[in-house]
Amino acid sequence: MPGPMGGMRKGSNRAPEKAKDFSGTVKKLIKGYLAPYKIPIIVVLIFAIGSTIFTIVGPKILGNATTEIYNGLISKLSGGAGINFEVIANILITLLILYVISMAFSAVQGFLMTNVAQKVTYKLRNDLAKKINKLPMKYFDKRTNGEVLSIISNDIDMLSQNLNQSVTQIITAICTLVGILVMMISISLEMTIIAILILPITMFVVSKIVKRSQKYFTAQQEHLGYLDGQIEEVYGGQLIVKAFNAQEKVEETFDKENNNLYHSAWRSQFLSGLMHPLMNFIGNVAYVGVAILGGFLAANGKITVGNIQSFIQYMKQFTQPISQIAQISGMLQTMVAAAERVFEFLEEEEEIQELENPKSTEGLAGNVTFDHVEFGYDSDNIIIHDFNAKVHDGQKIAIVGPTGAGKTTMVKLLMRFYDVNSGGIYIDGNNIKDFNRGDLRKMFGMVLQDTWLFSGTIKDNIRYGKPDATDNEVIEAAKAAHVHHFIKTLPNSYEMVLNEETSNISAGQKQLLTIARVILADPKILILDEATSSIDTRTEIQIQSAMDNLMKGRTSFIIAHRLSTIKNADLILVMEHGDIVEQGNHEELLSKNGAYARLYNSQFDEL
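RE: above sequence
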């Protein structure tokens, strides 16, 4: 959509999707999740049918009361006994009992179906939560966070709500339709034929209106999505809008989309609003026909007055289950489409987490070898061509190079977030593919440029990598990361709760906390990916000292753009286009006057 600076953004609203494999998805849902609850579902079916039957017979019994009153009045006018109120009272009591039983049946089937739906939803959410931790990183590379979250939240909620409503409603609607038709025929076949004749007329009118209004509803959703997206975009980019004096342009774009929304919404709402009066008109015409025929039949003694009243009540109810079935079919399509997306997620290829005979990581020193490593996120686009390096335990290795050279990718390969296309990575002579992924990753401590903290106390965030750490260990780790003094100045100190966006501390302070977390975890191998990028120069000097102490005796990989931070590295690997073009220590590389020297001098010139 047109944004404040003329960009395009896709709206979040969309029309309900249809399932690609409706029957296949329904079978998966029944076999995998509903089958354990077949007894409660059968009970739901029985009670739903029972509730409908008791409701349907009501108008027929009420008609008997009307007939009794009519006959009593005629009898009174003829000098007879008049209305027998005892008979009428018995009829009404019977009717009340039937309605109470129907309500009780509805309550029981509603309770059971809600219980089934929520248990199915509970299991699906558990399966999704387990699944998400087994998926490879390449899955998330191809999808936005919003897509994944939509499956876990929106699709599950859609499935839960529609499963609870649609199953009982479709049973009730079908039973009601069949039951009403049977009751109408039992009263008068001739009147039933007239009532049924309205169906094709009604369906023709409804289909024409739906077909005409559907395109306007679709346009309304699209324009609403564009409008919502523009409001969100402009609201989030107010600083840029004002800085570039783009207010008028933003307002023009909004007016245009708002005008489009107005016209599409007006047409769609007007056409959908026609549905009710047209249905009423057709129904009223049918009532007239039924009333005339009913009066004729009553005059000839073929039907009672009460039966005419009952028939008209049934006739009023006759179109309701048809409309309900049409509405439920849309709900079912939406539900199955949501279930299909959930099952597609659950069927995604998983990472192999556990090996049959994995090697142990116990006692490993931390020697790392990259042997002719080749890798590409896409097989057609190789970004690491022939990476070779030998790292001895306890060494501090810096990986430098321009953006896109493959620095961070090498670290992701080392921790097996991705597997190499060819070649191998070895720790103490063992291929990393011979370890369970979980065991392998326990050897590493990682501090990334993009910090990650969760909503909780500062103490719990530091303790994340070592849940059994004592309070004293947490404090010592914080001191080593030079963040203890800052924490003590906060309200509640280590018990201060970080909010959901962790916006109540600065970016640099977040980074210090993540460094403290790694210090506490005490890993064999350290990975620092732009670990000090969010920290001011003064704090960086303090952190560098702490990190030097931390890295003693541990193999450490440091990815840095600021070359001043890695002068004392044992080995510096200079990467360009996925290959190591130079390696050596700081002085050696400067003396070569090559790629490293160019990078270093460019930063020095900037200063």
